[in-house]
């Protein structure tokens, strides 16, 4: 992201040398140790380029985890999935010292299974038994590298992680829209992630992807309840809010970074969708946004 994102730590996927290609598993002690080795304060804003699936042991306490200005409380025995590119913050190190659980991390594309964004879950009854079984099977295979060829080991882990994610996605009969894999919305979402700082027009994405704007709007509505334009605008607003809260960049610099001709156009765009000017949002958000370290 360059200079404008200095206060958001970009975290690249870097597993153990012995880890399978594209996936790794750590506990909270190892998470803290990796943070220290890479000089990353886990309570500071960070943007990993890989998935986090966080699971807490049933016998411990809850954990607060902040993802893009929303603080989720993961209950004992609960789960939270954080996708790549989200800005998130772990609790203070003193809290993580007391936290017990498992974190599965993987690169985009390692599996194709999907589930709702940042949805804290605590499966119960038969759902919990099956989810726990899926996790145990995944961890057992992960720990037994060498009993199969590397190719077979990775293929097995992909299937077992997919089973775990499908079980979690359906725990408690979650109502989520059916979105075809690699369909119009999936391609639109990927294109928005890549190009939202350079294009704010749905027509540009439609032309590049070979769809009509109507097709993208129908697909976005089915997947998110938002029109394609509203989805695109919400992504731009989210990035603006991240930069306003987590960096000290002036509004004019943020406007340039997000592809606006000038600060006036950026302010008009932001105020129309948020109801506040960018600087008013920054002042209010910084006044109420608590550093996770203050909750230790």
TrEMBL record:
Superkingdom of origin organism: Bacteria
> Which part of the chain is the HTH araC/xylS-type domain?
186-284
Q: Which PROSITE patterns match?
A: HTH_ARAC_FAMILY_2 (PS01124)
**Pfam families to which the protein is assigned, alphabetical:** HTH_18
Q: Which UniProt keywords apply?
A: DNA-binding, Transcription, Transcription regulation
**InterPro entries the record matches:** Homeodomain-like_sf, HTH_AraC, RmlC_Cupin_sf
**PANTHER family, per database record:** ARAC-FAMILY TRANSCRIPTIONAL REGULATOR, TRANSCRIPTIONAL REGULATORY PROTEIN
Name of the protein in question = Helix-turn-helix domain-containing protein
Organism of provenance? Saccharopolyspora griseoalba
């Amino acid at each position: 992201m360059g200079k404008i994102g200095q206060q958001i730590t970009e975290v690249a996927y870097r597993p153990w040398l012995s880890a399978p290609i594209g996936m790794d598993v750590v506990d909270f002690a190892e998470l803290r140790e990796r943070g220290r080795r890479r000089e990353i304060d886990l309570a500071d804003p960070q943007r990993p380029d890989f998935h986090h699936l966080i699971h807490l042991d049933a016998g411990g306490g809850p954990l607060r985890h902040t993802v893009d200005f929303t603080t989720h409380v993961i209950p004992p025995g609960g789960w939270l999935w954080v996708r790549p590119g989200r800005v998130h913050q772990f609790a203070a190190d003193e809290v993580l010292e007391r936290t017990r659980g498992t974190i599965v991390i993987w690169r985009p594309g390692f599996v194709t299974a999907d589930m709702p964004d940042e949805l804290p879950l605590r499966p119960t009854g038969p759902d919990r038994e099956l989810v726990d079984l899926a996790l145990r099977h995944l961890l057992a295979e992960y720990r037994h590298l060498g009993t199969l060829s590397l190719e077979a080991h990775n293929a097995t882990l992909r299937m077992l992680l997919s089973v775990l994610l499908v079980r979690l996605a359906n725990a408690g009969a979650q109502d989520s829209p059916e979105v075809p894999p690699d369909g119009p919305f999936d391609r639109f979402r990927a294109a928005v992630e890549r190009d939202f700082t350079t294009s704010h027009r749905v027509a540009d994405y439609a032309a590049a992807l070979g769809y009509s704007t109507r097709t993208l709007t129908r697909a976005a509505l089915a997947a998110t309840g938002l029109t394609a334009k509203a989805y695109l605008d919400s992504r731009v607003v989210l990035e603006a809010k991240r930069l306003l809260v987590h960096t000290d960049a002036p509004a004019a610099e943020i406007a340039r970074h997000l592809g606006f001709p000038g600060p006036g156009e950026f302010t008009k765009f932001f105020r129309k969708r948020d109801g506040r000017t960018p600087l008013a949002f920054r002042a209010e958000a910084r006044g109420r946004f608590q550093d996770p370290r203050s909750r230790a």
